[in-house]
Design goal:
- GO terms for molecular function: calcium:sodium antiporter activity; calmodulin binding; metal ion binding.
- It holds the Pfam family Na_Ca_ex.
- It comes from Oryzias latipes.
- Keywords: Antiport, Calcium, Calcium transport, Calmodulin-binding, Cell membrane, Glycoprotein, Ion transport, Membrane, Metal-binding, Repeat, Signal, Sodium, Sodium transport, Transmembrane, Transmembrane helix, Transport.
- With 921 residues, this protein is α+β, with helices and mostly antiparallel strands.
- The chain has three domains: 416 residues, Up-down Bundle (A middle domain of Talin 1), CATH 1.20.1420.30; 117 residues, Immunoglobulin-like (Sandwich), CATH 2.60.40; 119 residues, CalX-beta domain (Immunoglobulin-like).
- It is 44% helix and 18% strand.
- Strands 18, 20, 21, 23, 24 and 26 form a six-stranded mixed sheet that branches. It has a five-stranded mixed sheet with strand order 9-16-14-11-12, with no helix packed on it.
- Helix 1 runs antiparallel to helix 17 and helix 2 crosses helix 17.
Length: 921
C-alpha cells in the first residue's frame, strides 16, 4: 500500500495499516503536480529562478483571486435574486375584510445561512472538495487549512475593521441576538467537533457516520437558527423586551436581561432602558398590536417604506429647491437604497464591483430609475380617432339673467378632414325652466362648411317680474352627419405628402362624424328680482395639499339685484391653522348682477405620503349694501337701502350649504412618484441583470467606484484607481458576461453556471497556491492560512466594511461571520470527507486522517473565538460602547488592536507549530 506524506503538520494521511504517521517537521514540503497544473520543472532551481517563479506564481494568484471575486459577484447576484422572490398571500383583517400583500418566500435567517453563506464561501468550500477528489480521495492540507484560516481572518480581522470604521459617536447593535448566539455556538462547536472525530471517537481516521453527521450538522444549524428567529419551541418563553422598530413601524420583541416593564421602551439608536416615551404612548401602541391594527406586518412595512420615501423626497426638496424632479427622484432613490437593510449578498456584490471599477451600483440604479419615473410620470389619455369629426358645445355651461333677452350658444368642430361639409341638429329641452314661460323653444340644423370650426345660434329668454328660483334648461345636439366630402385634389398642399401612402389612406378611409364629449349644453337662468341666496356648491370638498391657493366658489342664486357683502371665516378641525392652512376671514362683496365669487385659502404643502385633515369655511349672514337696478333702468332708481325696500325686493339670505368642510389630502402626483419609486427600490433589481447585452456593456464600461453618500447629484468621473482595476479585470468581466443573466429562470441559470466556473477557478487557484508555497519553502498549511484565506476573504472584508457603515444594525457585518464559519466546516469539510469516507468504505478500507496538531489549532481558535464573542457582548453595555460596533474612540481602538493581535498570535503560533518550534498537544 503506498504511503502518502502530506504537506501539512496539522493533517496527514496514511493507508499503511492503522498506525498514524508522524508529523512532518521538515522546513518545506515535497513538490508534486496539482489537480490541474503540473509542477514547474526542473525542480530545485537556482535562487534567481526561484525568485522569478515565486513572482510569477504570486502574480497569477492575485489575478485568479480577482477572477474569483468577479464570478463570485455574479454568483451572489443570482442568490440575491433567488432569495428576493415574492409571493402574494391573502390576509384577513380583524373586521372581516380580506386584502392581498406580497411576502418573501425565503426567510432572512435561512437564506443567510444557506445560499448567502454558500455564495460568500464558495471558493473555500469548493477548494476542499476539489482537493480531496483530485488527490485520489485522500485528505489534503489546503482545503481544511484554508477554511480554518478563513474563519480566523473573518472572526478577528473583519470584525476588528467593522468595529473601527463606524462613524464617530455612532454604534451598531445586533438585531437578531438569538440567531447570533445560535450561529456563534455552532461555529465554535464545529471546530471542537473536528477534534472529537479525529482524536477521541476514532483516532486517526474518519468513519462514514462521522463524516455524514458533520454534513448533517449544517441543516441542523439552519433549523435551530430558524427556530430562534421565529421564536418557536422554548424560545417563546425567553424573557423579552418590547421596543419600537422604526423601520417597520410596529412593536417587536427582543431578549432582555430583566422582565419587561411598560416604561422600559428601547428605541433603536438609543441606549437600552431609555425612558423617552410616556406610559400612555406605549399603551396605545401595544393596544394596536393586540387588536391586529387592521394590518399585517408585511403591509405595515410597505406603508412605512412609502412614508420614508415621502419624507425623504420632502427633505431633499427643501434642501435643494433648485433641483429638477429627475434629480430629486435620483437622490431620493439613492438615499432610500442606502438606508434600506441589505443582505450579505448585496454588500459582497457592492464591494466587488467598486473594487474592480464597475461603479457604485446604487447610484447607477438610482439614476436609471429616476429617468424612467420622470419619463412615464404623465398618464396617457385616451386617443381620439383621427378619421372622425367631433361636434360638441364649447363651452357646455351657460348662465344669464332672465332680463338678458337672448343667449348665444357655441358649437365647435375638431378632428378628421377639414374639407368636409358637416351637419348637426340641435333642440332645446325643459329642465326646471319651461319653454314658453321661461325661454323660447328652439330647434334647427347647423351646417359646418369646409374649413369652418365654430357655429353659433340664439335662444330667447323670457323676463317677468315674479320672484322665482333659478331655473335651467338643456340644449341637445343630435344626428351628426357628413353631407359633402371634398376630393383629395382640393386638399390643402400642406396636408399632402410626397408619399403615396398618405393619399391612399386619405382616399380609402371614409371620414365619420360623431358627437364629442359635451353633446348637451346646460343653460341656467338667474332671477333678477331678489337680492339672492348665498351658498357653497356642496357641503364638502377635497383638495390636494400641493394646490397652493385653494379657490372656493360662493354662488348667488335666486336673484342678483343689489350690492351684498357676505362675511366668512375658517374654523380649525384636525387641520391646524398655520400648519396645514392659513387662517382667513373677511367679506366677499357681490356687485349688482354678480352671481359668483371666489374665496381664497392658502394650503400649506408639507408633502406627506398620506394625509386626511379637515377644516371648515363658514359663511355668515349676508349684508345688503345697496339696492341694485334692473337692466334698462336709470341710475336715478338706485337708492340707499331702507326697511321698506328690503321687504319689497327680498333680503339676501344664506342657502343650503353655509359650511364647507375641506379635506386636505396628499398630493396625487407626489404619492404616484413615491409609489413608483418604492417598486424600484428592490435590491434584486439593483444587482440583477436582464440581458446579455446589458452584461457586456457593463463589462467594458468603467465607472466611478466611490461609496460616498454625496447629495450634489453630480456624476463623478472614474478615478485613476478605477481605470487601473478596470483594465486589470476587463478579461474576467468580459468572460463572465457570458454567464446567463439573473432574470433567466429566476436566477437559477446564473446560479448553476457561476458555481461551476467558481469550481474551475478554485482548482487552478489551489494548484497555484500549493506551487507558490513549495517554491518559496512554505508548507501548504501555512500558505493556506495566510495567503489563500486572505485572498478569498478580501471581498468579504470590503463587504462587511460597507455594511458596518451603511446598515443600522450589526447583523450583516458580524452575525454573518459566525454563521459563515460554521457553514464552512459543515459544508467544506463535511462534504469533502463524506465523499472520501464513502469512497474508501466501498473499497473496504478506512479513510485515515492523522489529526497531528489539530487539537492545538482547535483549542487555540476556540479560546480566541470565545474571547472575541465575550468582548463583543461586553461592548453592548451602554456604559462601554452601547453596541458591538462603533462607540467612543478609545473603546474602538482598544477593541481593534485586541482583535488584530489575536489574529497575529494565531498565525504566529499555528506557523511555529507547523514547523515544530512549538509543541502541539
Amino acid at each position: 500500500v503506498p504511503h502518502l506524506k502530506l504537506r501539512s503538520s496539522a493533517i496527514s494521511v496514511t493507508h499503511e495499516g492503522n498506525s498514524s504517521a508522524p508529523s512532518n517537521c521538515s522546513s518545506e514540503d515535497n513538490c508534486s503536480d496539482g489537480v490541474v497544473l503540473p509542477m514547474w520543472n526542473p525542480q530545485n532551481p537556482a535562487v534567481g529562478d526561484k525568485v522569478a517563479r515565486a513572482i510569477v506564481y504570486f502574480a497569477a494568484l492575485i489575478y485568479m483571486f480577482l477572477g474569483m471575486s468577479i464570478i463570485a459577484d455574479r454568483f451572489m447576484s443570482s442568490i440575491e435574486v433567488i432569495t428576493s422572490q415574492e409571493k402574494e398571500i391573502t390576509i384577513k383583517k380583524p373586521n372581516g375584510e380580506t386584502t392581498t400583500t406580497t411576502v418573501r418566500i425565503w426567510n432572512e435567517t435561512v437564506s443567510n445561512l444557506t445560499l448567502m453563506a454558500l455564495g460568500s464561501s464558495a471558493p473555500e468550500i469548493l477548494l476542499s472538495v476539489i482537493e480531496v477528489v483530485g488527490h485520489n480521495f485522500e485528505a489534503g492540507a489546503l482545503g481544511p487549512s484554508t477554511i480554518v484560516g478563513s474563519a480566523a481572518f473573518n472572526m478577528f480581522i473583519i470584525i476588528a475593521i467593522c468595529v473601527y470604521v463606524v462613524p464617530e459617536s455612532e454604534t451598531r447593535k445586533i438585531k437578531h441576538l438569538r440567531v447570533f448566539f445560535v450561529t456563534a455556538a455552532w461555529s465554535i462547536f464545529a471546530y471542537i467537533w473536528l477534534y472529537l472525530i479525529l482524536s477521541v471517537f476514532s483516532p486517526g481516521e474518519v468513519e462514514v457516520w462521522e463524516a455524514v453527521l458533520t454534513f448533517l450538522f449544517f441543516p441542523l444549524c439552519v433549523v435551530q437558527a430558524w427556530i430562534a428567529d421565529r421564536r418557536l419551541l422554548f424560545y417563546k418563553y425567553v424573557n423579552k423586551r418590547y421596543r419600537a422598530d422604526k423601520t417597520r413601524g410596529i412593536i417587536i420583541e427582543s431578549e432582555g436581561d430583566a422582565m419587561f416593564t411598560k416604561m422600559d421602551l428601547e428605541m433603536d439608536g438609543e441606549g437600552a432602558n431609555s425612558h423617552v416615551h410616556p406610559k400612555e404612548a406605549l399603551d396605545g401602541m401595544l393596544e394596536g398590536v393586540e387588536e391586529g391594527g387592521g394590518m399585517s406586518p408585511e403591509q405595515d412595512q410597505e406603508e412605512e417604506a412609502r412614508r420614508d420615501m415621502a419624507r425623504t423626497l420632502k427633505e431633499l426638496k427643501q434642501k435643494h429647491p433648485e433641483k429638477d424632479m429627475e434629480q430629486l427622484i435620483e437622490m431620493a432613490n439613492y438615499q432610500v437604497l442606502v438606508q434600506q437593510q441589505k443582505s450579505r449578498a448585496f454588500y459582497r456584490i457592492q464591494a466587488t464591483r467598486m473594487m474592480i471599477g464597475a461603479g457604485n451600483i446604487l447610484k447607477k440604479h438610482a439614476a436609471d430609475q429616476a429617468r424612467k419615473v420622470v419619463s412615464c410620470h404623465e398618464a396617457s389619455g385616451q386617443e381620439e380617432d383621427p378619421n372622425t369629426i367631433y361636434l360638441q358645445f364649447d363651452p357646455s355651461h351657460y348662465q344669464c339673467f332672465e332680463n338678458c333677452g337672448s343667449l348665444k350658444l357655441s358649437v365647435s368642430r375638431h378632428g378628421g378632414e377639414s374639407g368636409c361639409t358637416v351637419k348637426v341638429d340641435y333642440r332645446t329641452e325643459d329642465g326646471t325652466a319651461n319653454a314658453g314661460s321661461d325661454y323660447e323653444f328652439a330647434e334647427g340644423t347647423l351646417v359646418f362648411k369646409p374649413g369652418e370650426t365654430t357655429k353659433e345660434f340664439t335662444v330667447g329668454v323670457i323676463d317677468d317680474d315674479i320672484f322665482e328660483e333659478d331655473e335651467h334648461f338643456y340644449v341637445r345636439l343630435s344626428n351628426p352627419r357628413i353631407v359633402h366630402r371634398a376630393e383629395v385634389s382640393i386638399l390643402e398642399p400642406s396636408s399632402i405628402t410626397s408619399s403615396n401612402s398618405m393619399v391612399g389612406i386619405s382616399s380609402h378611409i371614409p371620414p365619420k362624424a360623431a358627437l364629442g364629449k359635451d353633446p348637451v349644453a346646460t343653460v341656467t337662468i338667474y332671477d333678477d328680482d331678489h337680492a339672492g341666496i348665498f351658498t357653497f356648491e356642496s357641503k364638502s370638498m377635497r383638495v390636494s395639499e400641493s394646490v397652493g391657493n385653494m379657490q372656493v366658489k360662493v354662488h348667488r342664486t335666486s336673484g342678483a339685484r343689489g350690492k351684498v357683502a357676505v362675511p366668512y371665516h375658517t374654523v380649525e378641525g384636525t387641520a391646524k391653522a398655520g400648519e396645514d392652512y392659513e387662517d382667513v376671514s373677511g367679506k366677499l362683496e357681490f356687485q349688482n348682477d354678480e352671481t359668483m365669487k371666489l374665496l381664497n385659502v392658502k394650503i400649506i404643502d408639507d408633502e406627506e405620503y398620506e394625509k386626511n385633515k379637515i377644516f371648515t369655511v363658514v359663511l355668515e349672514e349676508p349684508i345688503l349694501l345697496e339696492v341694485g337696478q334692473r337692466h334698462g333702468d336709470t341710475n336715478d332708481n338706485k337708492t340707499a337701502v331702507g326697511p321698506e325696500d328690503m321687504s319689497k325686493m327680498g333680503c339676501p339670505i344664506l342657502g343650503e350649504h353655509t359650511k364647507l368642510e375641506v379635506v386636505i389630502e396628499e398630493s396625487y402626483e407626489f404619492k404616484s412618484t413615491v409609489d413608483k419609486l418604492i417598486k424600484k427600490t428592490n435590491l434584486a433589481l439593483v444587482v440583477g441583470s436582464s440581458s446579455w447585452r446589458e452584461q457586456f456593456v457593463s463589462a467594458v464600461t468603467v465607472s466611478a467606484g466611490d461609496d460616498d453618500e454625496e447629495e450634489s447629484g453630480e456624476e463623478r468621473l472614474p478615478s485613476c484607481f478605477d481605470y487601473i482595476m478596470h483594465f486589470l479585470t476587463v478579461f474576467w468581466k468580459v468572460l463572465f458576461a457570458f454567464v446567463p443573466p439573473t432574470e433567466y429562470w429566476n436566477g437559477w441559470a446564473c446560479f448553476f453556471v457561476s458555481i461551476s466556473l467558481i469550481g474551475a477557478l478554485t482548482a487552478v487557484t489551489g494548484d497555484l497556491a500549493s506551487h507558490f508555497g513549495c517554491t518559496v519553502g512554505l508548507k501548504d498549511s501555512v500558505t493556506a492560512v495566510v495567503f489563500v484565506a486572505l485572498g478569498t476573504s478580501i471581498p468579504d472584508t470590503f463587504a462587511s466594511k460597507v455594511a458596518a457603515i451603511q446598515d443600522q444594525y450589526a447583523d450583516a457585518s458580524i452575525g454573518n461571520v459566525t454563521g459563515s464559519n460554521a457553514v464552512n466546516v459543515f459544508l467544506g469539510i463535511g462534504v469533502a470527507w463524506t465523499i472520501a469516507a464513502i469512497y474508501w468504505h466501498t473499497k473496504g478500507k478506512a479513510f485515515k486522517v492523522n489529526p497531528g496538531s489539530l487539537a492545538f489549532s482547535v483549542t487555540l481558535f476556540t479560546i480566541m473565538a470565545l474571547v472575541c464573542v465575550m468582548v463583543l457582548l461586553y461592548r453592548r453595555r451602554s456604559s462601554v460602547s452601547g453596541g458591538e460596533l462603533g462607540g467612543p474612540r478609545t473603546a474602538k481602538l482598544l477593541t481593534f488592536f485586541l482583535f488584530l493581535s489575536l489574529w497575529f498570535i494565531y498565525i504566529l503560533l499555528a506557523s511555529l507549530e507547523a514547523y515544530c518550534h512549538v509543541p502541539g498537544f
